[in-house]
């Protein structure tokens, strides 16, 4: 097991006061809280910060941790020295309300169920009466826009740390088949009842919540259930109007472009967005593309147009 | 550590507007008291359909909001008003981020 440098994790000196530690925690918690942060490793960092704070905020645990000495490096192979815990009392033998299953083996070996200060450790050989609902768990799930439209299924490999009735840590492996219904949107959550952490002492399991993230799509942009697509048009299609085929998530559809269409004009294909109640729409943004004047013949035609239809698109800038 | 692997076909519930939870169901799902939910309702953080607590129905979005508020209160030690403000701002930020991404992509294509 690896040594954890809790002071380094919190960015404070070994001599830091309890107030300084609390301030550092508040700051880091705001920065890395998974609900708030968009840092890619936010969840991992938040866990580490919480574990460090769990030890450093409690003067007794901190003193016990400090007794390990400052010569350890983070990541170094670590075994607690025998008898290192002597002289500390953790009144009542419970750690302070935190969910130990979230913490590292290092924490567990010092303060967890199997460790010398374990919360659920028993002295008389019989486990203490203890019943608790399992923790809810949260995870993100990435899906493509096509999967959001058609629905999808995923097999999630879950490794769940659990505490058994004796407070011992075990890891259960679970393959979870999840069906994602059509019409899910970014940020929406899926609840899997009873698939969170197991309860302790016969308590019911917690729930698993999956938050959906949509992968960026090369063609479409998404806002809620609405889909946006850029549609290039020739100048004559824009001027004269045209019937063009437009891709949507559900297949190609015909779209009538009105005569005199402008660049950045927005046309709506009602109900062609992500399915739902009501379904989203697809918006088509017109984008007029001028063909290159790369031959003598094409140049001549552009010059002919300039003569035949004089046009000043900058009139509004001249006043 | 003992290892075991179980394969589970999970029943999924999407937390959207179609989901309808009673006060009791919301309390059980979030492990909170009815008094706590009443406080959230009176603060205007979640808005149930129905006229009185026995008739109240909460959407999946309300459930997701309560979960987030609980996490913020627990982890950042903010009070209810602070958590409420944060949740509103986070939803706004998420909406704006999506819009910025969409606009950036639009300009790349032009």
Task: Give your account of this protein's structure.
The complex is a heterodimer of chains A (319) and B (110). In chain A, a hairpin with a 2-residue loop joins strand 8 (242-248) and strand 9 (251-257). Chain A is elongated, with a radius of gyration of 31 Å. Chain A has 319 residues and is an alpha+beta fold. Chain A has helices at 6-10, 18-32, 42-56, 59-66, 105-111, 145-150, 235-240, 296-308, and strands at 137-143, 152-163, 169-180, 189-192, 208-214, 221-223, 226-233, 242-248, 251-257, 266-269, 282-288. Chain B contains four helices and two strands; from the N terminus they run ββαααα. Chain B has helices at 23-30, 34-42, 60-76, 80-109, and strands at 5-9, 12-14. In chain B, helix 3 packs across helix 4 (80-109). Chain B is globular, with a radius of gyration of 18 Å. Chain B starts with a strand and ends with a helix. The A-B interface holds A 26, 29-30, 33, 35-36, 38, 46, 50, 133, 136, 169-181, 184, 186-193, 195, 207-209, 216, 221-224, 228, 230, 276-277, 285, 287 and B 1-18, 29, 31, 60, 63-64, 67-68, 71-72, 75-77, 86, 90, 94, 97-99, 101-102, 105-106, 109-110. Strand 3 of chain A pairs parallel with strand 1 (5-9) of chain B.
